[in-house]
Amino acid sequence: MKKWKMVLLGLASLFVLFTIVTGFKTFILTSKQPEPQPVKIDVPGEGAVARFSKAITYPTISRQDYSQFSYAEFDDFLGFLEDSYPLVHEQLHLDKVNDYGLIYRWQGSEETKLPIGLTAHYDVVPVLEGTETDWGQSPFSGEVVDGKVWGRGTLDDKIGVIGILEAVEKLLSEGYQPKRDVYLLFGFDEEVGGEKGAQAIAEKLKQRNIKFEFILDEGGAIIEGMVPGLAKPVGVVGLSEKGMATAELSAEGSGGHSSQPENQTNIGRISRAIAKLEKAQFPADLQGPAEDLFAYTAPEMKGAMKYVFANQAIFEPVIESILLKKPTTAALLRTTIAPTIFQAGEQYNALPEKAKAIINLRVMPGESLEDVQSYIEETINDELVQVSVTGNEASSVSSIDSWHFKSIQQAARNVYPEAVIAPYLMFAGSDARHYDEIAENTYRFLPVLITAEDLNRMHGSNEHISIDNFLQAVSFYQELIVNADHQAGDR
């Protein structure tokens, strides 16, 4: 047999073997979704919706300058909570931290079990001046129109606060007694970092030597059209959140008249540095929570996409190229850079003696700020550009093998049986990171079914949520509290 025929035969054999192995891996791929135990949404709908609507009318706006808080509105909101949830305030112990951070303790019947914590925040971002007329309903009206509740906080995050309180009030009305302690932890400044709210709450609990099985905060949601190749809505539970850091690039040199510029001005030097960073980007790698996301969603896919994602180890370069095409999925794979501020010059005909740019970074788990700074310096490769990186690294990555994650997944499947519930990496920040030291695991999940367009409304115009979604969120929190009671977890 001629040599070239032997080569072709060998290649054909390898191709057949490759096809058999990858096809078999695709065939044996099994679902990681628990069987749903659908629940009847047993919530006092009309009263719950009315209370939720009322909660939106309080403009509890947080601002970078704490002296600019309208604390009277916060006081009124807390009075509203006390009036609206009498059983919670009669039967749970309430501590306040910095006057407005709330710690409710629902004492369990078994002291040997570690507690769980449900956290949310009741502060909201301001409505951008000049956009008020863009709203279909006034942003602090709480109007109920066409089966939807409108206003700032309906998605971020009064729905979490009110959803949790409605769930606990309902369980208390039925005489339910949890086995383990349940803590309700509500911050009031999450939108500006949570320093006086969640961070102070976590510090107080740490001083009391309280350790949690898990903490659940806002974060991911059940989103339609999120994962390529999967028609079903996907509920993403954040295992970690990317770090948030600031890189400052600065260059100094002689100024002078603009009629006699040097070949490389300070503005040009900083612009060149940014252009290099945007062209190079940080290295991409499908790992950690992003890899877990596709491990959980691949079994639910069909056709070619299922084949590709079922064989991640082989097709990782192909998968990465697909994900890198969209900003929303590219952010799963790498630290992101976003130049947001450029400062230089005061007059049109004078060269600035200094130029500075600010870059917002969202840092992947496992990358330190030192790693980030080194990469930026190596990529820019310009000794005259000074680089300074400050901020927070990514939070720790929580377990997908624990009963904690499985309880969240089961509760979500019970309320949304058509959804695929999977782990993921959260891009934005949340209060959950403040609880890392006092909880075995921290998760980020808002139990609502929304679209990508809804995500843009969270800090934008026309924020609203359907009544059905709100009531399903209440039902989820009830399910989770009850499910957690059936698990182990001794002190």
Structure commentary:
- The chain has helices spanning 3-27, 45-56, 71-84, 86-91, 158-173, 198-207, 266-280, 288-297, 303-310, 312-323, 327-330, 369-380, 403-415, 452-457, 467-485; strands at residues 93-97, 101-106, 116-121, 144-145, 148-150, 182-187, 212-223, 234-241, 243-252, 336-344, 354-363, 386-391, 420-426, 439-450, 464-466.
- The chain has two domains: 45-225 and 396-485, Aminopeptidase (3-Layer(aba) Sandwich); 241-391, 2-Layer Sandwich (Alpha-Beta Plaits), CATH 3.30.70.
- Strands 1, 2, 3, 6, 7, 8, 13 and 14 form an eight-stranded mixed beta sheet that branches.
- A hairpin with a 2-residue loop joins strand 4 (144-145) and strand 5 (148-150).
- Helix content is 37%, strand content 21%.
- It is built from 15 helices and 15 strands.
- The model has no long low-confidence stretch (mean pLDDT 90).
- The protein has 491 residues and is of the alpha/beta class.
